[in-house]
UniProtKB/TrEMBL annotation:
Belongs to the CobT family. GO terms for biological process: cobalamin biosynthetic process. InterPro entries: Nict_dMeBzImd_PRibTrfase, Nict_dMeBzImd_PRibTrfase_bact, Nict_dMeBzImd_PRibTrfase_N, Nict_dMeBzImd_PRibTrfase_sf. Keywords: Cobalamin biosynthesis, Glycosyltransferase, Transferase. It comes from Nocardioides flavescens. Its EC number is 2.4.2.21. Pathway: Nucleoside biosynthesis; alpha-ribazole biosynthesis; alpha-ribazole from 5,6-dimethylbenzimidazole: step 1/2. This is Nicotinate-nucleotide--dimethylbenzimidazole phosphoribosyltransferase. GO terms for molecular function: nicotinate-nucleotide-dimethylbenzimidazole phosphoribosyltransferase activity. It is an enzyme of class 2 (transferase). Catalyzes the synthesis of alpha-ribazole-5'-phosphate from nicotinate mononucleotide (NAMN) and 5,6-dimethylbenzimidazole (DMB).
Length: 338
C-alpha cells in the first residue's frame, strides 16, 4: 500500500500557508485540500469532477431478531427506490453531480444479478454470516465494481449501504477490529426503542462470543460477523486505496468497512476522509482509530451514502480554494506568508 504523495502534501501545505488569507483561516477546508492534493500527487490539486457512489445492498439475518425498527422487506423495496432515482441520497446526488450505482450483493429476493452472492447473510449470533467461499466471492465483487468505477474515471469514490439490520454486523466489525465489548459499540440504528436496544446488545455480545479468536483475522471476521454487502464494500474501499483513488466515507457501515480494509492492508485509512459523523457510537470509535475527523456533524442516520454525498461540495470547495485563491506574494510582492 503506497501512501499519498508526501512531497505533494508538503507543497500543498506550503501553498496553503502562502495564500492571501489569514493564517489558519481556512480550517478544515484547508486540511481537506491538502489531503486531496496528496492523494492526487498534484499541487494545486485538480478539480474533483467525477464522484462515483456505489450502494451495496444486502439483507442480514439479524433483522428478524428484533434489532431494527423496520422489517427486512424494506431492503428490496428501497433498492427499487434507488433505481428509480427517488431516494434521499438520489436527491443529494442529483444536486451535487454524483453518479449513483446500486449493486445487489445479498438482497433476500429471487432477483438474480451478476453480483449476487447469496440471498441474505446469516444471523451472526446464531451462525456465520457467510461461508469462506462466499466471503471470497463478496470481496471479489467489491474489487470488480471498484475497478469498473475507476475505469469510468472516478476521482473520488463513495460507498453507500442499504440493508435493514446492517448496523448490527457493522458494529460487530468495529468491536472486533478495536477489541471492544458490545456495550461500547451498540447504537440505536434505525431508531429502536430501549427494548430493541437491549436485544441488539444481546445479539452483539452473543455474536462476538461465538466468533471467538477469529476476530483477530479481518477476513475471518467478515465471514463470522459481517455480511456479503459489507465484505463487498470493504474490498471496494481497499481497491480504491490500492489504485490511489481517494474515498469519502459515509456512516457506520462505510467506516466499519474502511477499518476492516485497513486491517487487511494497513495504509488504507490514509486514502480516506470522513464525510460526516453518524449518531452510531461505533462510527466515532472507528474514525478515532483511523485518525479521521468528519467534515459534517448534522445528526444524520439515513445511510445510503447520504452523509458523504452531502459533504462532496465541501471537498470541491476546499480544492477550489487551494487552486484559485491568490498567493500573498502575488498580492504583496516581497511577502511570502499569511
Amino acid at each position: 500500500m503506497r501512501a499519498p504523495d508526501a512531497g505533494a502534501r508538503r507543497a500543498a501545505a506550503e501553498r496553503l500557508a502562502g495564500l492571501a488569507t489569514p493564517s489558519g483561516a481556512l480550517g478544515r477546508l484547508g486540511e481537506t485540500a491538502v489531503w486531496v492534493a496528496a492523494c492526487q500527487g498534484a499541487v494545486p490539486p485538480r478539480p474533483v469532477e467525477r464522484v462515483r457512489l456505489t450502494i451495496f445492498a444486502g439483507d442480514h439475518g439479524v433483522a428478524r431478531h428484533g434489532v431494527s425498527a423496520y422489517p427486512p422487506e424494506v431492503t428490496g423495496a428501497m433498492v427499487a427506490v434507488f433505481e428509480s432515482g427517488r431516494a434521499g441520497v438520489s436527491a443529494l446526488a442529483a444536486a451535487h453531480d454524483v453518479h449513483v450505482r446500486v449493486v445487489d450483493v445479498a438482497v433476500d429476493s429471487p432477483a438474480a444479478g451478476p453480483w449476487k452472492v447469496r440471498r441474505g447473510s446469516g444471523a451472526i449470533h446464531l451462525e456465520d454470516a457467510l461461508s469462506p467461499a462466499e466471503t471470497a466471492r463478496a470481496l471479489a465483487v467489491g474489487e470488480a465494481v471498484a475497478r469498473e468505477e475507476i475505469a469510468a474515471g472516478a476521482d473520488l469514490m463513495v460507498s453507500g449501504d442499504m440493508g435493514i439490520g446492517n448496523t448490527t454486523p457493522a458494529a460487530a466489525l468495529v468491536a472486533a477490529g478495536l477489541g471492544l465489548p458490545a456495550t461500547e459499540v451498540v447504537g440505536r440504528g434505525t431508531g429502536v426503542d430501549d427494548a430493541g436496544l437491549a436485544r441488539k446488545l444481546e445479539v452483539l455480545e452473543t455474536a462476538l462470543r461465538r466468533a471467538g479468536d477469529r476476530v483477530a483475522d479481518p477476513v475471518k471476521t467478515l465471514t463470522a460477523l459481517g455480511s456479503a454487502d459489507l465484505a463487498a464494500s470493504t474490498a471496494y474501499v481497499l481497491t480504491a486505496a490500492r489504485a490511489g483513488v481517494p474515498v469519502l466515507l459515509d456512516g457506520l457501515m462505510a467506516v466499519a468497512c474502511a477499518l476492516t480494509a485497513d486491517r487487511i492492508e494497513p495504509g488504507v485509512a490514509a486514502w480516506c476522509a470522513a464525510g460526516h459523523r453518524s449518531t452510531e457510537p461505533a462510527q466515532s470509535l472507528a474514525l478515532d482509530k483511523m485518525g479521521l475527523e468528519p467534515l459534517l456533524d448534522l445528526g444524520l442516520r439515513l445511510g445510503e451514502g447520504s452523509g458523504a454525498v452531502a459533504a462532496v461540495p465541501l471537498v470541491r470547495s476546499a480544492v477550489a480554494l487551494l487552486r484559485d485563491v491568490a498567493l500573498l506574494a502575488e498580492v504583496l510582492p516581497g511577502e511570502s506568508g499569511a
